[in-house]
Description:
Layout: H1 2-9, H2 13-31, H3 43-48, H4 54-60, H5 69-88, H6 95-116, H7 122-136, E1 141-143, E2 149-151, H8 155-167, H9 171-193, H10 204-209, H11 230-233, H12 243-246
Antiparallel strand pairs: 1-2
Amino acid sequence: MSDIGDWFKGIPFVTRYWFAGSIAVPLIGRLGLINPMYLVLWPEAFFYKFQIWRPVSSALYFPVGPGTGFLYLVNLYFLYQYSSRLETGAFDGRPADYVFMLLFNWICIVITGLIMDMQLLMIPLIMSVLYAWAQLNRDTIVSFWFGTRFKACYLPWVILGFNYIIGGSFVNELIGNLVGHLYFFLMFKYPMDLGGRTLLYTPQFLYSLFPSRRGGVSGFGVPPSSRRPAAQEQGGGGGGRHNWGQGFQLGDD
């Protein structure tokens, strides 16, 4: 148990609580401690019965069962891997900026869910984070099942197809990719590559709640990976930090 505890404590701060919530809430629903109908996003209950917890619980809940368990575990793995890599990579030392990204993506996904009557928001939120990682590391070569290799920028779309095969739908993944693209465009692409003004700012109260852990100005200073020197993309100084990005070994022995 001490090994599991040490591993859990080693997960980056924000990812740790998101990961724990994504295990605890489905488990609560599975055990029947709370009726799963109270955990999903229902517009009528949210707007007219003021069940304001539903946008949060629907982003953490997933109906785990014999037909959905594998899809749940795969996406939980994506959450752990890519959220950890973003939090310790582009957002290293800036937890407030990372929390803001999650809040921005979550708000966009909740609005979309209310409009499209989507009851489960876990996969879209995970995919939005995965998409951001893929764009910030777009030239990194990743490996998928059966030894297939391609650039990280294609990974969200490969996973969309993968989840469609094992889950029978791609709407959740598509929404997540589109929201992730919206964040990446507004925060990085438009101001840095297109010379536009910065449209997204991390609120100051988040810096008070989650202070930066190292010196430097608040906010972002990490450009998209396509604008970094090629040597940095190959991880010359990063060592093993991007091992999973360089080798997505899900399913390998």
